[in-house]
Design a protein that fits this description.
Helix content: 40-55%
Strand order of the largest sheet: 1-2
Number of strands: 2
Number of helices: 3
Radius of gyration: 12 Å
Structural class: mainly alpha
Oligomer: single chain
Largest sheet: 2 strands, antiparallel
Distance between the termini: 25 Å
C-alpha cells in the first residue's frame, strides 16, 4: 500500500498522504504534542485510518531496522 506521495504540484512537493493534500508532518506533529491518532483523523477526514496506521507502522519498522543493522 502506498501511504505517501510526493508530487511537485501538490504542496510544493511536500510528502502528503496518498489521495490528500495533508502533509505527513501534520500527523507527526499531532502525536508529538500528545494528540491522538483519532484526533488527527477527526480533524483530517480525508486521511483514511488504515493509511495513517500503515505510515506509522512503516516508519517504526524503518527505525527498528536502522538500529539493528
Amino acid at each position: 500500500m502506498t501511504t505517501v506521495v510526493v508530487d511537485p504540484e501538490v504542496l510544493w512537493g511536500a510528502p502528503v498522504f496518498t489521495g490528500t493534500r495533508v502533509p505527513v508532518d501534520t500527523l507527526l506533529e499531532y502525536l508529538t504534542h500528545g494528540d491522538s491518532l483519532c484526533a488527527f483523523l477527526s480533524d483530517f477526514p480525508s486521511v483514511q485510518r488504515d493509511v495513517a496506521v500503515a505510515f506509522l507502522e512503516e516508519g517504526a519498522a524503518r527505525v527498528v531496522q536502522s538500529v539493528t543493522t
